[in-house]
Structures are given as structure tokens and as C-alpha cells.
From TrEMBL:
It comes from the Bacteria. This is Drug resistance transporter, EmrB/QacA subfamily. One of its GO terms (molecular function) is transmembrane transporter activity. It is found in: Cell membrane. It is a multi-pass membrane protein.
């Protein structure tokens, strides 16, 4: 493998064509990412509209997230088989069409079924887009380019509650799905012009057994963790059983993949120390990012008694901090490498959540400052970790890396959200102030774990003499 050391060189220039490609991919990722949080705020409204119970309505959100987890493992194989640009465009077209159908759903069961299809297509957009960008850019440019898609991936869920609250304030819940249609059409038109349309390469047949293992194991794991957070207790049927089966499926997949010459995903990438360190840090950073999306709105609703719109507006600082820092983190990563930038970002998240744990959020200005710092930290950590993982692997293994990193983030996010929800629920008996301090203490611990992972990554990259690197070549 060859790498490029940019220890003292300034970041290389990026062509206008590459920037256009990055923004098109980011636009598509934004459409898919928006739906991870946009619909949550409307579940009560949809439940009342159809006269259903909340337990059934929750599947409108859960079905999307579980289906998204199913499609992630097969994205690498589809990208090689069809061509990653064609896969991205096809997934975006399907996502847009299904979004329009969701808006016209006549019942909750039909809506849940359509959400499954929508999640399957959304699960392909981000890893396929990351592969397109990773294969298109050259040395010393990946950080700035990946930061653009990072804006969509991180900012869309943060803006979901705000946009959803504003739309519900004066329009039907169906507009939460219809808004995806014009966004999708614009992204499709731009993609037809600027996304590469190369044909796929010759690949072996789909690893059906491997897909069965991970295609069942991953959503069962996410389902069990989600139920644990919602129920607050490890129920045998709804939490322990899916977790055991899910973990068994994932373990069986790893054993199966190590024995095959053409596995669904190349798990031997974890023999690369930098890739493994970035992945470990990503688990904790994913837990923190998804956990913030859960805890911060509840903090305003349960502790301060804010309504939906007010909560959305007071959480804007989280998305604003992320939006400010993501482009800068990309430039810093290209210049100084992923290790030190990821370490600074994860440390910021630990400091911000630690301030809430210590009760330093009594003043509104300080409260908003800490939320803004939290957003800056998550934004500053995600891009360098992503770039470090992708540049540690051979270029032809990039589809495997993008799928695996997205799987790790999904598992870390589900685990973090479950743990924080359980901790918060169990501590509420002592009062909301105490409960949120305990929950934020757990978040601060997660931030320190992510910081430790980033320090390990920094050490490995420094030992190897790596800074900003291009995807490795054979």
C-alpha cells in the first residue's frame, strides 16, 4: 500500500467538478437522513388520525430503522455488481417514489409496509455516496469532501424535529413525507448530470448465507436494543431473545466471512490497526450522537416543560454547532490528519456533557453554549474518524469499509440510545433534575471513551507516519 504524508503541505485544491459531486451526494444523504428523526415528532398525530394505539404507531419509525439496517450489509456487493453511481441513483429514485406513496397511505399497516421499503432504499444512499466520493477524490482532499456528506448525515437528524414541529404546526403529517419528493427530484436531476454512471464489474454471486446471518442479526440487535430503551427493562421476549439471536447472527457472519474467499463484507479489514481504532472510536461517537438526539429534546420537554416547537427551536444550537464545525474539521483533517482532530472533537463532547452532568446548565446562555459545543464536538469528530477509516484500506475495498462503518454507527447509536433511555427512566423516581444529571454523566463517560479511541488512533497514525492520506493503492 502507498500513502501520502502531508505533514507540512497545505491542503490540495479541489476542482469545481468534485465539489459539485460532493454536494449532489450530500443532498441525497440529507433526504434519507431527515427521515430518521422527522417522523418521530408526528407519531402521536398519526396515531390519532388513524385511531390506532401508540404501540402500533411506533412501528412507523422502528420499521424504517430496522429496514435501513437490513440493506446496509448488501450495499457493497450491489455497488460492485451494478456500479456504485447507478446504485445511488436507483436508490434515490426508489426513495423519492416511496416517500410520495407514504404520504398517500390509507392506513397504518400500509404506511408501515411502505416505511420498510423507504428504509431499504435509504440504507443504500449514504454508504454508496461515501464510496463515490472516496473513489473520486485524490490525496489530501478526502476530509473536506467527506465533510460535505457529513453535514447531511449529522445535520439532517438534528433538523428533523425542528422542521417536523414547524410543518405540523400548520399542515398535515402527510407533508412530512411529501417534503422528500421535491428534494429527491432535485437530487435525481443533479445526479443524472454529475454522478458517474460506470457499469459494475464482474462479481461472484451474492453470499446468500452471509446476508442471511447479518441481514437478520443486525436488525434483531438494533430491535432488541431499541426495545430495551423503550421498555426500560430487559424483557425476555422483546429484548433478550432478539439480542441473543442478533448477536449470534453477527458472530456467525464473522466466522462465515473469514472462511469464504468472496464474503459479503471483507471483515479482514479489521486486521489494519488504524481502521480498527477508528471503528472503535466510531462506536462511542455514534452512541453519543444518537444519544444527544434523544436526551437533548427530552431535557427541554421533561425538565423545562417546553412544547414541540419550542423544543425544536432550543435544540437548534446542536445542529448549528455541527454545521459550523464540519467544513472546518474537513480542512483540518486534510492538513493535520484524523488523529488529533478527532481527539479534540471527542474531548469537546465529553466537556459539554460533563458540564450538564455537574449541573452547570442553570443559566440559559451557558446552557445554549454547552449545547453548541456539543454539536461542534460531534461534528469535529465524525469527519476525521471517517477519513481515517477509509484511507486505511485499499481503494477496491472502500465499498466494504463504508458499509461496515455505517453498520458500526447504527449499532453504536442503538446501544447508546438504549442505555441513556434506561438510565434516565430508572433515575426519574428521584426527580427529573437528578435523572438528567445521571444520564448526562453516562454521556460524558461515553465521550471520554470516544476520546480514548481517538487518542489510540492518533498514536497509531503517528507511529505509522500517516497524516492526511488518500485511499491506499495496491
Amino acid at each position: 500500500m502507498t500513502r501520502v504524508d502531508s505533514r507540512s503541505a497545505p491542503p490540495l485544491e479541489i476542482s469545481p467538478e468534485t465539489w459539485r459531486l460532493a454536494w449532489v451526494v450530500a443532498f441525497g444523504a440529507f433526504a434519507g437522513g431527515l427521515d430518521t428523526s422527522l417522523i418521530n415528532i408526528a407519531l402521536n398525530t398519526i396515531e390519532r388520525d388513524f385511531g390506532a394505539d401508540l404501540e402500533l404507531a411506533q412501528w412507523i419509525s422502528s420499521a424504517y430503522l430496522l429496514a435501513l439496517a437490513v440493506s446496509l450489509p448488501v450495499c457493497a456487493w450491489l455497488g460492485r455488481r451494478l456500479g456504485v453511481g447507478r446504485l445511488w441513483l436507483g436508490a434515490l429514485v426508489a426513495f423519492t417514489v416511496v416517500s410520495g406513496l407514504c404520504a398517500a397511505a390509507p392506513s397504518i399497516p400500509v404506511l408501515i409496509g411502505l416505511r420498510v421499503l423507504q428504509g431499504l432504499t435509504a440504507g443504500l444512499l449514504v454508504p454508496a455516496g461515501q464510496t463515490i466520493l472516496g473513489q473520486a477524490v485524490g490525496p489530501g482532499r478526502l476530509g473536506r469532501v467527506m465533510a460535505r456528506i457529513g453535514i447531511a448525515v449529522v445535520l439532517a437528524p438534528a433538523l428533523g424535529p425542528v422542521l417536523g414541529g414547524l410543518l405540523l404546526h400548520g399542515l398535515s403529517w402527510r407533508w412530512l413525507f411529501l417534503i422528500n419528493v421535491p428534494i429527491g427530484i432535485l437530487a435525481i436531476l443533479a445526479g443524472l448530470r454529475w454522478i458517474p454512471h460506470e457499469k459494475g464489474t464482474h462479481t461472484g454471486p451474492l453470499d446468500v448465507a452471509g446476508f442471511a446471518y447479518v441481514g437478520l442479526g443486525l436488525p434483531l440487535t438494533v430491535y432488541g436494543l431499541t426495545n430495551w430503551g423503550a421498555l426500560g427493562t430487559p424483557e425476555p421476549a422483546r429484548v433478550l431473545l432478539p439480542l441473543v439471536l442478533g448477536c449470534a447472527g453477527m458472530a456467525a457472519f464473522v466466522v462465515h466471512a473469514l472462511r469464504r474467499t468472496d464474503p459479503l463484507l471483507d471483515v479482514t479489514l479489521y486486521r489494519t490497526s488504524a481502521y480498527t481504532a477508528a471503528s472503535v472510536a466510531f462506536v462511542f461517537n455514534g452512541a453519543l450522537t444518537f444519544g444527544c438526539a434523544l436526551l437533548i429534546p427530552l431535557y427541554f420537554q421533561l425538565l423545562h416543560g417546553e412544547g414541540v416547537v419550542e423544543t425544536g427551536l432550543r435544540t437548534l444550537a446542536l445542529g448549528a454547532g455541527t454545521a459550523v464545525m464540519l467544513p472546518l474539521s474537513g480542512r483540518l483533517t486534510d492538513r493535520y490528519g484524523g488523529g488529533p482532530i478527532a481527539a479534540i472533537g471527542t474531548l469537546c463532547t465529553a466537556v459539554a456533557t460533563g458540564a450538564f452532568a455537574l449541573g452547570l446548565d442553570q443559566q440559559p446562555v451557558l446552557e445554549q453554549a454547552m449545547i453548541f459545543l456539543l454539536g461542534m464536538g460531534t461534528g469535529m469528530a465524525s469527519t476525521p474518524l471517517m477519513v481515517s477509516a477509509f484511507t486505511a484500506v485499499p481503494r477496491d475495498r472502500l465499498p466494504d469499509a463504508t458499509s461496515q462503518i455505517n453498520i458500526i454507527v447504527r449499532i453504536g447509536g442503538a446501544l447508546g440510545a438504549a442505555i441513556y433511555a434506561v438510565v434516565l427512566a430508572r433515575a426519574l423516581s428521584a426527580g427529573p433534575h437528578h435523572a438528567f444529571r445521571v444520564a448526562f454523566t453516562w454521556q460524558a463517560g461515553t465521550g471520554m471513551a470516544a476520546f480514548a479511541g481517538a487518542l489510540l488512533l492518533w498514536f497509531i497514525l503517528s507511529r505509522n507516519g500517516d497524516r492526511a492520506t488518500a485511499p491506499a493503492q495496491h
